What we know:
373 residues; 64% helix; 13 helices; Formate dehydrogenase/DMSO reductase fold; disordered C terminus
Amino acid sequence: MSPGRDERDAGAEARHIDLRRADLSGEGSGQRAGGEAPEALQAVGVWDRLPSATSSGADATYYDRPVLKEPVWIWAVPAYFYVGGTAGAASLLAEVAESLTRGETDGLVRKARRIGAAGGGIGTALLIYDLGRPERFLNMLRVFRPTSAMSVGSWTLAAATPVFAASAVLPHAGGLPGHLGNLLGKVAGFLGMPLAGYTAVLLTNTAVPVWQASRRSLPWLFIGSAMSAAGSLLGLADLNDTEERIVRRFEVAGQVAELVATAAVERDVSEVKQVGRPYREGVSGGLWRASKVFTVASLALNLWPRHGRALRLASGACGTAGALGIRFATFYAGKASARDPRASFHQQRAGEGGAAATGSAAVSGPGGRRATD
Length: 373
């Protein structure tokens, strides 16, 4: 039932609506509203300066406000980066070891497949926890877009999780199920490769300056770190001499790749000084430095001539800490970069970011130049 004229006039007055210029009608028009008089409301502040008045030259921003919205991800996302990458690298190692050693590393294969299965399940749970509701993950699978890192990654995780689990369980059954399990193990190894590094592609395919600047090097860092993480966990297990030697070589290769890629990321993000600040300052900078220290320590312990149980435990703990630190440092660096308006403006004026793809700087004015200049 539509409200009467008196009720409509009262509602318009309560909502500070001038009925000469607007019409108060519809289902919600009869609802009560705040009764404060217009003169009691605080005046809305209006900027009385030009945006560039807060700074000048190449340092000009838009009222010193962030250009981008800060990522709303929680701690579960970098944890998923670590767990998913470790699962993918472990599954790949299992299939390579089985193919090359012909039965000498059955224990290693079983343990690596179990890590892959556990990582797939835990990673899915962490991702759903961040999303808030399970159906949101299912909604991500409604379409498949090869050009979207999010879509490809979601489908890879959805396919890898049951395959990892089957490859860890079915081979023990023997017979046809066992053969099927070993076949699925090969599929698990294939799926493990993109799972180890697609999350870095996902990050760099954004407008966050520090992530976008490392688009060429961050995927290699995540892959190397995933190898290091998988080797560190497997190094804590009870292995024979052949298995231990394979795991150590795999871990060392990953740690060398991780340290080289770390230097490459630092070089890429430092091309524009303001963009690289999160890796030098604050929480993300501290985590970044700590991760390098732990990785170097683990590498040194792995290269030590004598290998005892205590040394393996120390190496595994340091390698795990380094891999976790890389993910959380990258995560917090992106949050800090999105909050910094100068990072976005400096990157665009330098011809990087979106300008690198379009051939034209997105920000003009003092200090700006075309990417093709």
